[in-house]
Amino acid sequence: CPSCPQDCTCVWTDWIDVSYPDGSDRNGGDNETFENIQKNDTSWECAKVENISCRAEKFPDIPIENLGQVVQCDVNTGLICNNKDQPIGGIIPMPVCLNYQISVCCLPNRPECFTPTPTGTTSATTPYTTSTVSSSTVSTTTAMPTST
């Protein structure tokens, strides 16, 4: 049933790791961005990211906000970790990003999963969550749709 609503639910990917931080490059880092993933894996298709999960490869059971690194993990971009933003100390003694992995919940790339919003009517959009992780705080914002 190609037009059934359950066919438009997001599906989680396996853990994705297309970038590895170079410890000798202060301007380097680990960039598991959607743009980077698409460059490295042309078969990767994700019409819309509905949710994201990020973890450190060597510390998969520790939430990234507890690792003492400055990391951005969000549904709009993916994961970005810059070596230059890292504090000295923490879980590793050098200011270098850990190697991170992401898993995303993707909406299928089918027209029936995306309804265009006609002009002058109420828009119905799925809420999305953006998380920004730093060494001491995690701020999460949930954007809810607005009616016009």
UniProtKB/TrEMBL annotation:
Matching Pfam families: Mucin2_WxxW
Predominant location category: secreted
Annotated spans, Disordered: 119-148
Subcellular location: Secreted
Name this protein carries in UniProt: MUC2 protein
Transmembrane segments: none
Domain WxxW intervals: 12-106
UniProt-listed InterPro entries: CILP1/CILP2 (IPR039675), WxxW_domain (IPR025155)
GO cellular component, one term: extracellular region
Keyword field: Glycoprotein, Secreted, Signal
